[in-house]
Amino acid sequence: MARRTYWKGYLKLSLVTCPVAMTPATTESEKIRFHTLNRGTGNRVVSRYIDAVTEKPVDEDDEVKGYQSGEDEYVILEDEELESVALESTRTVDINVFVPRDSIEWIWYDTPHYMVPDDPVGEEAFSVIRDAMAATDTVGISRLVMYRRERAVMLEPRGRGIVVWTLRYGDEVRDPDAYFGHIKEVAADKKLMTLLKKLIDERTHPWDTSMVKDPVQDRLLDIITAKKKGRKKPAKAKAEPEPEQPSNVINIMDALRKSISAEKKAKR
């Protein structure tokens, strides 16, 4: 399949510059999408913006962005005002700082993109920047206008290319102490830890992409294919039985021993 270019521009480090191209590293194009139809006519239903007070349709030219400043009070921002706060250059990834690769926690990662050289002449400069980051185990930090917003981005060397991650804004990441801080620190029993490690070892396998397969999507495709061919839809998948809720305190040691025994029987 031909590579679809989403963004073209320049990668810059001090006086070293090279043309690059980017494309999203993930896709949702394979997901099943539905349209809303009129059951009576079979035609698609069109959505329109309606004025909340007059209940009349609003023309596209009259739609503007508004920031709520109070109850039923809004500050209107025009397109020119929104564009004025963006970066002057939207086509240059200028790396202005490097940080250790493992110093940015996963929770800050947002959306990945593949970056590749966009001109044979610039491949050497691209390779030098990539390999230098890999050799020093660092990632580059820059800023870029993407998806109509200025984003902080992280450049991570990966194989022969670079992965550009958009990073979440500071106010998008919640403080974990607000959720984990109340959990009491309990010293784990050594015997329990030994059994639990054994159970984990029994269930440890090499990573495979089939582990993240979407069974719901597969069943939907079966239903759609059957209906297109005029066949009866496939039988409904059986739901897994809900685990029984314990009526009293569980003996963790017994539960782990039974689990390990069941794992061994399943393997045999």
Automatic annotation (TrEMBL):
<keyword id="KW-0227">DNA damage</keyword>
<keyword id="KW-0234">DNA repair</keyword>
<dbReference type="GO" id="GO:0006303">
    <property type="term" value="P:double-strand break repair via nonhomologous end joining"/>
</dbReference>
<comment type="function">
    <text>With LigD forms a non-homologous end joining (NHEJ) DNA repair enzyme, which repairs dsDNA breaks with reduced fidelity. Binds linear dsDNA with 5'- and 3'- overhangs but not closed circular dsDNA nor ssDNA. Recruits and stimulates the ligase activity of LigD.</text>
</comment>
<dbReference type="InterPro" id="IPR006164">
    <property type="entry name" value="DNA_bd_Ku70/Ku80"/>
</dbReference>
<comment type="subunit">
    <text>Homodimer. Interacts with LigD.</text>
</comment>
<dbReference type="GO" id="GO:0003690">
    <property type="term" value="F:double-stranded DNA binding"/>
</dbReference>
<comment type="similarity">
    <text>Belongs to the prokaryotic Ku family.</text>
</comment>
<dbReference type="GO" id="GO:0006310">
    <property type="term" value="P:DNA recombination"/>
</dbReference>
<feature type="compositionally biased region" description="Basic residues">
    <location>
        <begin position="226"/>
        <end position="236"/>
    </location>
</feature>
<feature type="domain" description="Ku">
    <location>
        <begin position="55"/>
        <end position="184"/>
    </location>
</feature>
<dbReference type="InterPro" id="IPR009187">
    <property type="entry name" value="Prok_Ku"/>
</dbReference>
<dbReference type="InterPro" id="IPR016194">
    <property type="entry name" value="SPOC-like_C_dom_sf"/>
</dbReference>
<keyword id="KW-0233">DNA recombination</keyword>
<protein>
    <recommendedName>
        <fullName>Non-homologous end joining protein Ku</fullName>
    </recommendedName>
</protein>
<dbReference type="Pfam" id="PF02735">
    <property type="entry name" value="Ku"/>
</dbReference>
<feature type="region of interest" description="Disordered">
    <location>
        <begin position="226"/>
        <end position="251"/>
    </location>
</feature>
<keyword id="KW-0238">DNA-binding</keyword>
